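A quick aside before the break. I want you to see a complete sequence-to-structure record at least once, exactly as it would be stored in a machine-readable document. Don't worry about memorizing anything.
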Amino acid sequence: MERKKLTFPIAYGLDARAFATATGAFFDDVTGYIHAAGFILRPDGVIDEAVYSTGPIGRFTSADALFMIDYRSKRPS
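That is the input. The structure line, written in tokens, reads:
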């Protein structure tokens, strides 16, 4: 984070099983991998949108995420 001068939190080195339990993402006990899970958070940290995928289809692209953020920010709360 320091090297890239990131100003937002990132997830690295998480316990994948604990993360899957906390978020509802799918954890594959055979491979030890967590399947893709994408989240858009509101400014207060609450999950506004979530996408779970067990394959390459159905994941947020950057364009999808930006569209959803723009769309959600323009609608009444």
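Two observations worth writing down. Strands lie at 27-28, 33-34, 37-41, 47-52. The mean pLDDT is 85. We'll return to this after the break.
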